[in-house]
Amino acid sequence: MQQHNPTADTATARTALVVVAHPRPDSLTAHIAGLATRRLTAAGYRIDLLDLHAENFDPRMTAADLPEWGNREKTYSPEVENQMRRVLAADVIVAVFPVYWMQVPAILKGWIDRVWNYGFAYGRSKPRLAGKRMLWLGLAGVADDDPIVEPMQQALSTQLDDGIAYYCGLTRSTVGLLPGAEEKRQRLDAAGNLLLDEALTGAVREAHYAALENRALGFVEDFLAADRVPA
Ligand SMILES: Cc1cc2nc3c(=O)[nH]c(=O)nc-3n(C[C@H](O)[C@H](O)[C@H](O)COP(=O)(O)O)c2cc1C
Fold it and tell me: Is residue 151's pLDDT more than 80?
């Protein structure tokens, strides 16, 4: 589905590809994606919304997607060719996802594997994605002050910024990690037992999620501000 910003000059408006990777349309992840989309629209971006589940994107690499290393001009499967067109048309890419096992969920990983393919996103002397910018917004169930947050940020940044985006020639890539996504704070005790707090309710719950929304919007603001500075 493509969403157009009626106030933007469509001839000159830049495009943001917003990639959402959550099976439930009523998820917190989808809600944060909506907030980010509205902020990008207000900044003048034309939005191409790619909801991987809603579009039934198949994350499995197929034989048709496997690179023929010697042929630079090969065609990929029609589904992948279509996704590549959307990536090429985007000036910025914003992926919004729940953190699963300290990584992106399989559907988003499969999108990267299949679409950011050899001969397209890498393996060319002139990268086709050069100049694009990317923001990864990852929601995590872990509590904000859990000691795992810092290594999680490092792990995601190493995989997504260094391992994928910069390898493919993107100008800028940032991971905005949003811990505290779960209503019940959870942690492990020294014996490895899971301890679950009571679910947040009332004003405390509202304040908790308002703070998470603000952090998400802060990441989008910083991304837009950096966009205005020549790379
Ligand atoms: C398969 C799976 C793996 C998960 N792995 C992690 C994890 O490694 N670290 C973490 O903090 N939360 C983890 N979570 C919790 C999700 O990040 C959390 O439920 C989600 O961000 C909440 O947002 P949502 O309501 O949009 O799903 C995991 C959840 C699932 C279902």
Answer: yes
Distance 9 CA to ligand 1 centre (A): 38
pLDDT value for 5: 46
* Domain assignment of residue 6, yes or no: no
- Which atom, in ligand 1's list, is nearest to the CA of 146? 11
Give the CATH number, domain containing residue 179.
3.40.50.360
Q: Give the chain's length.
A: 231
Q: Residue 216: what pLDDT?
A: 98
Residue 107's domain comprises 15-225
Is residue 3, in this structure, part of any structural domain at all?
no
> Closest residue (by CA) to atom 31 of ligand 1?
100
Token pair of 209 as six digits: 């999620």
Q: What is the mean pLDDT of residues 181-204?
A: 91
pLDDT in tens, 155-181: 999 999 999 999 999 999 999 999 999
Q: Which residues line ligand 1 (CB under 6 A)?
A: 22, 27-29, 98-102, 139-142, 181-182
Total domains, the chain? 1
The verdict on residue 147 lying in a domain is: yes
